[in-house]
Structures are given as structure tokens and as C-alpha cells.
Amino acid sequence: MNILLVRLREIGDVVFTTPALRAVRQRFPDARIAYLVEPLAAPVVASSRHIDELIVAPRASLASDIRLGLRLRAQRYDLAVDFHGGPRASLLTWLSGAPRRIGYAVRGRAWMYTTRVPRPRALRPRHAVENQWDLLTAIDVPAPSPAADPVEMPVDPQAAAAVAVRLRAAGLPATARLIVVHVSAGNPFRRWSQDSFAEVTAALISRHDDVRVVVVSGPSERDAAARVIQHTRERLPAATRESVLSIGECSLAELRALLDRAALFIGGDSGPLHIAATSAIPIVGLYGPTLPVRSAPWRSPMLTTESVEGGPLECRPCDQRVCAPGDFRCLTRIAPDAVVAAAERSMVAAVR
């Protein structure tokens, strides 16, 4: 059996497929499994033991997609599963030529699949892992649970060694509790304010002598991380300003390794939060336009996870294309005090 799995787009989307990778491997233990992803999310599954080949789709263009499709067709896949359902993913799944192609019954593209799974167009209060898993019912894979089928991302030993060196260089005491704060997101609908992050970070440092904070961000948001560090230090007395550590930009592999050294992760509903879910670290997630029921960390309920929201709104959840009220109130209603309280509860629960 030669199997192709497809999931394009963002980091969190690919993290959410990692339980499915494990399930497909268990269902077909002797199969050869290839996974097609885009460059940004490739590190999530680069070390996965459940796949035999990682295929990274180059930048999208019709010519490159046709070339990639011909490459896929030459592999003579028996089965292809498209976890995405977008135009590009549908096309590449169809171009693979696999005699059995499983995908969503999406208008205008369903004909590209031989097995079509219904997907309601409305946003459902159902987790993304379960939504994607619907495709696996067509190959007799039983329903998942967070406890039995958590997300995963192996730690890269080289990344772990590099992180250890950087933390030592930043002066992290051996007895310190390290908090990782992620301050950016892929779109403005999920970006909590920098001042709010700084307020939370300063409060936690002020309350705990042994706390140190590392502020991280995506490559396009380096300035945001620098401003949060600056604004945090401005809120602190001189003696504790260096409790906000600067270790430079982290790759995804380094972020995953950093999380294993930390006592808490705080961040919005974006890729790094879901990478944090692949560890045992306590998590405080911030949810503006999205709902925890759809995208909370998918992992054992025995692990500490707190979700902080701005409260019920008629416009929430939204499709994150236009802010109907125009003021991003789903984010501005998330109070820093509520995030601090959630962080305190998480740290207490982690040491019980």
C-alpha cells in the first residue's frame, strides 16, 4: 500500500493532523506513507516516525503545481487523503492519480475525489482534529480522543542543544521557572495588544522572584517581540528588568525544544500554541475570534490547559476576513488580569 496524505497551509493545521498520521500508520503498518505540506509547517512533521517521506510543496504557481503533480503521479499512490480541501490541495490530490482519493464534498471540487465526506460550510463547535478525522472514517479508523490520540512533535536533539546554550548565555538560573510568551499571530484577528502582553509579563515577574520570561514571535513579528520586552522592562524596577530574557529568534524546532525547558506557555490561538500542546507544559491560550471548543490544545485532559476568552459576542466566532464591529472587541475584551489569574492557577496546578 502506497499512501499520500495532504495538508497545506498553516502550522496549527498540520499539528492537528499529527494524531491522524499515527492512526493511518496503525491502520496500515506496512504501508509506505508520504505527507505533502507547505514549507512553513514542514518542521512540525520533519521527524515524524509515522511517515516515510515528507514532500514540501514549493511556492504555489500553476506550473510548479503541474510539475509536482507529475512527480506525485509517478509514485503510483494507491490512496490519497486530502485533509485540507482547498483549491490547491484538491488539485494536487487529483493530479496524484491515486485510484482512491478521499476528500471533502466541497462545491466545485468534490469531483476530484472518489470518496467524498460531507463538511458543513458553517463554523461548528467541534474541534478541528475531529473535523479532519472525519476523512479517516472512510478507511475504518475509529473516532479520536485527546487522551488516546494527542498531537505530537518530536524534539530535535540538535535544536535542544542549541536552546540550552542560548539559555545559559542569557543567564537563566538553574532554579528559575521559565515562562514562554508568544506575542504574534498569522493575522491581525488573533493578535492581542503588545501592552496587554507586557502588563501580564511584568505582573508575573513582580509576583515571583524565581520567574524568568522569554518573549517569542514569528519571523515577521520580531519588532513586536522587541516592543513587548521593552514595555515589560519599563514596568519593572531596575533590579528585575533582566528577568525578561532575550535569546533571539527561534526556529519551530527550537521553539519545541524550548517548551520542554519551560514551566508555562502563554499565547494566542496560533501555531506556537499548538506546538506547545505537543509538550506537557501548562498552557494559557487566548481566544478572540476563535473558540476553544474548535482549537484548544488537543492533548490529555490530565495536562493543565486554561483558555481565556473575551466573552460571548454575536459576531464570534467569525471567518477572520472582516471585523464586523470594526474594533476587534473579541480581543480587547480579554483582560490582562484574567490572563494573569489563569497563569497563576496553571503554575500552581503544575507543581501539585
Task: Summarize the structure in words.
The protein has 352 residues and is an alpha/beta fold. It has 2 domains: 2-139, 3-Layer(aba) Sandwich (Rossmann fold); 157-350, Rossmann fold (3-Layer(aba) Sandwich). 35% of the residues lie in helices and 16% in strands. The protein is built from 14 helices and 12 strands. It has helices at residues 11-15, 18-27, 42-45, 62-74, 87-95, 128-133, 157-169, 194-207, 222-234, 252-259, 271-276, 292-295, 329-332, 336-350; strands at 2-6, 32-37, 53-56, 79-82, 100-104, 115-117, 177-182, 211-216, 244-245, 264-268, 283-287, 305-309. Strands 3-2-1-4-5-6 form a 6-stranded parallel β-sheet, with helices on one face. It has a 6-stranded parallel β-sheet with strand order 9-8-7-10-11-12. Helix 7 crosses helix 10 (252-259), helix 8 (194-207) packs across helix 9 (222-234) and helix 8 crosses helix 14. The protein is globular and about 65 Å long. The protein starts with a strand and ends with a helix. The model has no long low-confidence stretch (mean pLDDT 93).
Produce the secondary structure layout.
Elements: E1 2-6, H1 11-15, H2 18-27, E2 32-37, H3 42-45, E3 53-56, H4 62-74, E4 79-82, H5 87-95, E5 100-104, E6 115-117, H6 128-133, H7 157-169, E7 177-182, H8 194-207, E8 211-216, H9 222-234, E9 244-245, H10 252-259, E10 264-268, H11 271-276, E11 283-287, H12 292-295, E12 305-309, H13 329-332, H14 336-350
Helix pairs in contact: 4-5, 7-10, 8-9, 8-14
